[in-house]
Amino acid sequence: MPAPIRLRELIRTIRTARTQAEEREMIQKECAAIRSSFREEDNTYRCRNVAKLLYMHMLGYPAHFGQLECLKLIASQKFTDKRIGYLGAMLLLDERQDVHLLMTNCIKNDLNHSTQYVQGLALCTLGCMGSSEMCRDLAGEVEKLLKTSNSYLRKKAALCAVHVIRKVPELMEMFLPATKNLLNEKNHGVLHTSVVLLTEMCERSPDMLAHFRKNEKLVPQLVRILKNLIMSGYSPEHDVSGISDPFLQVRILRLLRILGRNDDDSSEAMNDILAQVATNTETSKNVGNAILYETVLTIMDIKSESGLRVLAINILGRFLLNNDKNIRYVALTSLLKTVQTDHNAVQRHRSTIVDCLKDLDVSIKRRAMELSFALVNGNNIRGMMKELLYFLDSCEPEFKADCASGIFLAAEKYAPSKRWHIDTIMRVLTTAGSYVRDDAVPNLIQLITNSVEMHAYTVQRLYKAILGDYSQQPLVQVAAWCIGEYGDLLVSGQCEEEEPIQVTEDEVLDILESVLISNMSTSVTRGYALTAIMKLSTRFTCTVNRIKKVVSIYGSSIDVELQQRAVEYNALFKKYDHMRSALLERMPVMEKVTTNGPTEIVQTNGETEPAPLETKPPPSGPQPTSQANDLLDLLGGNDITPVIPTAPTSKPASAGGELLDLLGDINLTGAPAAAPAPASVPQVAQPPFLLDGLSSQPLFNDITTGIPSITAYSKNGLKIEFTFERSNTNPSVTVITIQASNSTELDMTDFVFQAAVPKTFQLQLLSPSSSVVPAFNTGTITQVIKVLNPQKQQLRMRIKLTYNHKGSAMQDLAEVNNFPPQSWQ
Prior knowledge:
The protein contains 32 helices and 15 strands. By secondary structure, the protein is α+β, with helices and mostly antiparallel strands. It comes from Odobenus rosmarus divergens.
């Protein structure tokens, strides 16, 4: 068989290939020749064939069929064969393949070889791909070589020991005696690998870390080595850009960081040398900057002196002026980590950080933006917001959402005045309204509502902001809401903060109608605009007929949400005109409540989404309709109908009908649920419109009394009594009056009573007389429940009580099944 081509010729041939297919053809042809040679056990050219196979492997072609040939080369006595064999083993084998276990004996023999280069090959291979089984078997040989006087072998043994510790951490103590004299070596290669080994041991074992701190006195040794490196003169063997062995310096600084973390004595011992490194290292070359960066990280991570921390932050400040983008990015990231602990020192570099907002690199921009927000405080809020608003105006779209959110949070926390706060948020909405978070609109509405003296100024500013431009939908939504609330102030021209503008009622309605028909308006924005027009029917006097016409037009809108609003508002004009002014009166001041979860706005006499009962005490006063969702906690079985509370200023009773579908077929008593009524026979007639549930007339006037009362609940000093009344003309309705009394020595505050009944009933819970149950039975809370029982079934109820008593939030559930027969038969 002819001799195979040499590796150099193979490389030259492959490089002449003009296409990928031509290269694949060459590789396949050569692989076939190599396989034939392997099958014939050709020992003469095995080394050459494996070398070519490794080159093909580097090009991405399969070479697994050469694994056993690598083992044969390792077993050879020739150094050239061993060298290629071990290289092939490191490239083609790993611990997932059982073949590698066959190498264990060869490596053990080579670790004891008389030639240091063969021992070095074995150490490199074991440190590269040795499995946990191989490491256990060969750890003893590695430990012996770690104690040898040969520097060439000691540095390789140290790196191999690192791999052994990573694979089998319990073998760590085996190498502890050998580490005692490693740092006394003058060879920099041994020093470097020794520091890597010590770092690995300290990171993996707290016991080792404590041992090296106390017993071995490792910190003074490292300080001595580092000082020698700094003070030593020029050494051509270790010099890199005028700095002596920067790689060793960086490794020592990292180990010092681990040793000094949360340890006062170790930190004290290394303060001086860190200061020397920080002041004596040349910064004109990247090598010096790398050492300074590691020094800064070490200073910030240990318990260093305040002056040393300021020095570290000043180094990072100098990094910000560097032309290298990577160094600027590293400096911004490091300052962002330290700004909370060393805020004043970082503040000194505020102008440089703000300048980084203008950088062309997006990564630097993002880090500079995050750091700028971290630097905002009450003293610099105006200047920083000016810069950040300028950045918001000119930055890329991917930054606008985060920047807008940061400005909102900073303005809410540090705003010097309400007018400044409102102006800032309006500027954000004008600049990046499409990118703000969903909660920006309700938060700004809450802010405007609470700034009573700013209403005229705000509505005028918002009116001018949306003239002819509806592109920023959140801004248009806030403007529509404010115009609906304070349109009378806009028309009257009462603004004192700036020159008032003259606006007529028709001009205001023109703007809102333009919002309704604009192609840029979303469904939510149109809802805001229609509601604003409806509110203006009580603020304006000359345009009520025009408002009626607009509302009636949208009663046939294809947008279901808009259609429902229009139909309800139209019904308000026609059937409940006497209630319109009360229903559309100006919103009261909103109370902002912070819970354990997200911030929510609680409206004192309007509707709001309920918060979980576990996160805050129940609010006093009338409970909004949507808090019927809290009755989900009351459900013990199936077939429950939720309570539908009714209050003069809350959502109408029938609106809670949507919750009937939410709770499905649940039975309170756990008994089998009754079969649902056919769709053609509704159990309870529902009013056609939401507003039909609002009636100024009582449900019935003729009352039958004489039904005995019951005690529904009595525990912890709280007593709940039920008294009953029935209607003569409508016997399906039962009126239950609850009376809550408190026999303890302290008042019960924030009292809330809730109830749930089976699905065959319908229940209305009216407003309570108070939210405080007086102590010593000196008074009671009364509340009326109306129950519709068309099928005359036995009445069952589950109640839920929440209140605050003696500084604690109380909550309890109870079932009431002892209703007198006269109350339901």
